[in-house]
Structures
1.
Amino acid sequence: MHDRRSFAPWLLLAPVLLVFGTALVFALGTIVFNSITTYEPGVGQITSQLTLANYTSFLTDWYYWRLLGRTIWIALQTTAICLLLGYPTALYISRQTGQYRAMLTAVILAPLFINLLVRVLGWYIVLGREGFVTKFLQLFMKSPPQLLFTPTATLIGLVQVLLPLMVITLFSALVHIDRRLVQAARDLGAGEITVFWKVVFPLTVPSMAAGSVLIFVLAIGNFAVPTLLGGQRAPVMAYTAYENQVLVLNWPLGATITVILMIAVALVITLYQLWLRQSRWGALMRGQ
Amino acid sequence: MFSRITTFLVILFLFGPTLLVVWVSFSPGTGLTVSHIEPSLRWYHELFRTSDFLESFWQSVVLALCTTVISLSIGTIAGYALGRYDFRGKTAVSALILSPIMIPGVAFGVGLAQFFGELGVRPGYHTLIIGHVIITTPFVVRTVTASMLTFDRTVERAAQDLGASWFQMIWRVSLPMLRPGLFAGGLFAIVMSFDELAISLFVSGLYIVPLPVRIFTYLQTVLEPTVAAASVFLILLSLLSILIIEKLVGLDRVLGIGRR
């Protein structure tokens, strides 16, 4: 119908491309460039000599490997817990009907609209030194372990923040399952448990993968939760990038850390897309 | 049975800590404790005595409105172009526009701060607006392209056949048909801009301090129930926006799930 070489869409896209082309591309370009420069302590200036020193010092320092490992490990745990809690929740909601189901979905989605910092503040109250979990533990042990400013606190916070996204992803897969497939399995004599494991569960694998990739990517890149609940005692990549940018003023190192973080994100997304292309689940997803 | 118990535990887990924030805001003491019996409005007085939070609130409002006006304008026409036309380079363009969803906020924030820093641009509303427009536009584009899927093009054709000019067609036919998408995208942009911390922290200066940045600074320095009192107002604001969205378009539609 339309000429593929028509200039009309480009005219309409021009404002967006102008904004994105300048700010986004230049911002990311700047950190890629700055990551291969060095920092002169005290001056806060970036030298003009290009070098891979930041990357070699990152890759040869055990501290940074632990930082990267901690970031990935927390993100993996977050993803696993979101799957384990999100699946039964999505399943339960998908089996309800009418008003009750609508209410449950609204309740699950509501936290996404509540300010992230308000939700984090809640964990200060629960896990803090004066918090009731600590008070409760004091009944059993003399000096309960510190809960706030640990990787565990970050993990709990990330699960709370990201869980609704996993639930809605799985819910939307579950409600779109063809009822006739379930009916056919029942007619052929399958019990409830068999129907679930042989029909429903396999059909939700692509959404579990999509949801997991989303949660993982958002978890390794999250800044507010690990900074406020983990802080400098349990630093992750995003925190260390902030520390170098704002507190230490070592811009080249901050740039290097964010570049490595982006490479990690890109790697996960690429692997996921390769998997989609290869697996039979991917074929299923494309077929839908 | 098992899935039912999990669901209720999940709901408790999602809301419990937030409800405690409300409780703590009425605390008479200085710590973030829940062990008080007598409620007090001490921290609400404190909140309005120090003008920090109020000032930041209005700055966030200005920021969210400017951001939304810009991202809604450029996002709508872009979403329309992507939904309406088929052209060479379309995949690359939509990948570029949607990329901020996946780029870690801190990476983009650090990038913008260093970019502006090297250009010598001083932080202020303009730097914040640029950052916020880039992270909210993808959602506007997405909601608009989603409503383009159910867009009946024959109506546009009919308008033109009846003698409407291109401008009249867009203004009186196309835009009204996209209204739910525009509305959802706009509300999403306001909420996101109001919530944004990772980018704002790097590109806000000393004079313009959006509310999340203010709360972040407080949480890192003075842990007093003032923050809890401020949070209560934010919770009320969230409830209000949830009600509005649910009444007008539906929460699930804003997030792009269900009711297809």
Note: Chain B has a mean pLDDT of 84.
2.
Amino acid sequence: MDDPRIIQVQALSRVEGEGGLYVRIEGNRIEQVELRIFEPPRFFEAFLRGRMLEETPDIVARICGICPVAYQMSAVHALERALDVTVTPEIRRLRRLLYCGEWIESHALHMHLLHAPDFLGCDSGLDMAQRWPEDVQRGLRLKKFGNQLLEVLGGRAVHPINVAVGGFYRLPRREEMDTLTDNLKWGVDASIAATRWVAGFDFPDFEQDFDFVSLSHPDEYPMNEGVIRSSRGGLWTTEQFEGEFEERHVAHSTALQAVRVSTGEPYFVGPLARVNLNFDRLSPLAQQVAADLPITWPCGNPFVSIVARGLELIHAYDEALQIVSDYRPSQPRVEVPHRSGEGCAATEAPRGLLYHRYRLDDEGRLTMARIVPPTSQNQGQIERDLRAWLPRVLDQPDADIEHSCAHVVRNYDPCISCSTHFLRLQIDRQ
Amino acid sequence: MNARQPTLIVGVGSPVGDDRQGWRVAELLAAQWRLPARRAARPIDLLDWLDGVSWLVLCDSCQGAGPPGSVLCWEWPRLPAVDIEFGGTHDMGLLAVCHLAERLGILPPRVTLWGIEVGTGRLGPTGDTALSPLAEAAAHHAAKQVADALQLPPARHDLAPSYPP
């Protein structure tokens, strides 16, 4: 019998964090596909125990340098639910603005420097910069203005420090917000150009019947709140999340993998899921751009995720400009009591649904924290995509298969560093 | 230095803790030697400042270059050893930005990189912009070396220094 063919990507590039890929092929049969996350868990849920509730947004922001706002938003919403706190409409709008900044910087980076090289036959963003300098510079500028928004409203361009349970520590002055206006106007036009550019890439024909899952809100494109919806018809409140979505440990990965409890199957979160489930709540401008693209929505091709990111980039610039234009400083935050309680919330990180649940004691100290990041939810689906993709490329040289598998992984913009869990350790002493 | 050539000095760092060293060097060069110096919180900011610059001088904290306070210098394209880090947040690092600028065709013809060893670094609380005494001394030492390398006249001693004599 012939030796099995082994395809290994030792360390995936152009993803956040450290992971690899292992594929074992027997004849023409795919025997094993493992997305191996070897980055050590960072135990954030355990760090949070015993901390005061006010410390939570700044601690969870450190889980990720690309999507700190998402962690802050899910945390403050969960804690406010635990304490029955309702923020003002102005604070709610500013939280959406902060989220727009994060979507902008994350999506612009992924589209231009991490994902576009796959479609253009480049090994890296650096390689691409030499051949497509104008597109790369546009991407860098689009990203920069997202970080600038975070700096003005969040106090820092990376790991913002202005998010409080109940609102913000300080609100920007009107003139500080005004410094953003011209850049946001430029960003609206540039994000349209970027989206049209990526929509012109050559997408492999890879339509799949995915179970897309995202938040859904009746009046707005989902960022901070909504019910959880599945493209297969399910609808859940955030409180029902843990009853339907379960993380499981797999031997080959330090990160957990999520499945739907009712089906035992993986599911797909992120921009493609959001656009598919909420297309009519994208800004009118983003919908208008989408209507002119050669793509039909909903779309089941994961390679088209880059276009979904583009549409969300347009939406985020468009909405940010609107909020900044209307901005009038008001009360920065509402009062937050210290008492016992338990609450959960889900928001939409750039990479997909991010769930937090916390329990507090009488003094406002955390006694329990649960965090389910989007990348762990997508990992099972990524492995499934690879299983479906590999038969199409098996006749290619190993190096080409490695490249194309890494491309399949990067469709999800995985953020491997978000390993927040502590694995339960059981010692059996004889 | 050829005075007709536009030179830009950029200190890279953050507002608090000893990672502020790069900013401090830029502040000293601007105040005491009247040099065109800017502060960058993120290396990627550089890309917007390079138009018309023929000599870019970068000053940043680094780790792995020797005892804390050591000042080292490299001329692009010669690069620091791989175990010397100009790390930062998840954003693009200083060397990656230089490589990117080179590929984009906007890297100035001459680039000098000054690294100041920060050791394990002291993390200051928010709002505390003071450097530790060692980092402050290292920033002064680095500023003097940068100025000497630029072949400028000695520091303007008529300007009150912002540190104890």
Note: Residues 156-165 of chain B have pLDDT under 50 and may be disordered.
